[in-house]
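Exercise 7. Given the components listed, write out the predicted structure of the assembled complex. Treat all entries as one system.
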Amino acid sequence: MKRKPLILLTNDDSIKAPGLRFLIDIVKPFGKVVVVAPDRPQSGTAHAVTVNHPLRLHQIVKEKDYEEYSCNGTPADCVKLAFKVVLKRRADFLFSGINHGTNSSINIIYSGTMAAVFEGALAGVSSAGFSLADYRPEADFSSSAPYVKKIISEVIRQKLPVGVCLNVNIPAIPEKKIRGIKVCRQAEGTWQEDFVERTDPHGKQYYWMTGVFIKTGHGKDTDEWALEHDFVAVVPVQFDFTAYDAIDPVSSWFS
Amino acid sequence: MKRKPLILLTNDDSIKAPGLRFLIDIVKPFGKVVVVAPDRPQSGTAHAVTVNHPLRLHQIVKEKDYEEYSCNGTPADCVKLAFKVVLKRRADFLFSGINHGTNSSINIIYSGTMAAVFEGALAGVSSAGFSLADYRPEADFSSSAPYVKKIISEVIRQKLPVGVCLNVNIPAIPEKKIRGIKVCRQAEGTWQEDFVERTDPHGKQYYWMTGVFIKTGHGKDTDEWALEHDFVAVVPVQFDFTAYDAIDPVSSWFS
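Answer.
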């Protein structure tokens, strides 16, 4: 009999986030599930790792085919600690999320959810991250269920190409309005920050970072277009950041 | 008369790091220089941004063509705050470093130095990050000077293609041993973590993350090969993480 796949789950909204609880329920039937997730929200931590503070791991559940741990580190820390300390054998799959809020376009660069996915892929584990286009704690994940299930079952059945992981973004609309799954590229976009200046009771200035996301390109082949048009957007992503087209022109500067 | 270029400098080792002081001296002759750097070391913060805490900015120097500020945030915070709050006009160039320790291969993903560079490029500013292959605070940057100068002068003269920035890594060897500049791709590599387990005085376990970097591919066209063979490695990098080659195979899963 084939061994059940070993599946690691994590997120960046913390072990208590409804999006992770929803993902746990979806993934459990697929194999032995181990959750290692941050003990507090870690949104915007990107790929930060903790080397100058000790990491703590707290076991919450230990059943035959289901274990749950919280960790005081970042999502990348959680994955590294899971691989080396928690799991008894190599994970077969890693799924991260479901994030409260999209990680489409350039938001991937700031995303703890996707940093965990990159960590999985770097370790040679087929990995995917899921995000719902609703930032609120009370976001309704129910309509995403059939799509998350479909994508997870395909990842498990087909495996991902080496060095490739998936960034999945799901529109926050009723299930019957979702038009399907679209595999696409990362849209161009950037954040237009605004800093709100305040003065503290001691007379010193400080700043709160706020901002709006600006789409600078959202052609039909992009994740932003897919979300705007009620599709689940799946972007295959890689961690080779080389701009190959720029190698020759930049080389010519130094020849 | 042409206006002097406005150049933003930052790093992730903090405003006091010798590598940044060295870069400041190199860059000053090229234009009006503004430094906005973290007030404490931020290595390994990657692209983290601070939205749930207020940011503070502290002016250290204000001269006609040179200003210096420290900030309590991450390198990405420093750049965002510089662009929106500190600079009176759009920066022409951003340079980050010189980092104490390499950011070659996959280390770019954990790098605050390179997160700052990505922030510059995202804002349409020609940006490059510099790292020396010596982690020690007392690292000797002197042999890097002619190469850093050459690369900066070419970036200023030629400008970078849109959406592309540079990741420059410099071997820590005497100047006469450096064989030149090599434009290359990001080598394959990964960290093999090890967690040292300890018990605190209250009987609870904790873990220190350590690890070694494993090169899994370092062909002649990679930054790791260049460094091993005494070249300054220049990798043009981009922030479109789409794995284009995987779009068709993954699409076939859902058709």
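Discussion: The two ends of chain B are 60 Å apart (CA to CA). Chain B has one domain: 6-188+218-253.
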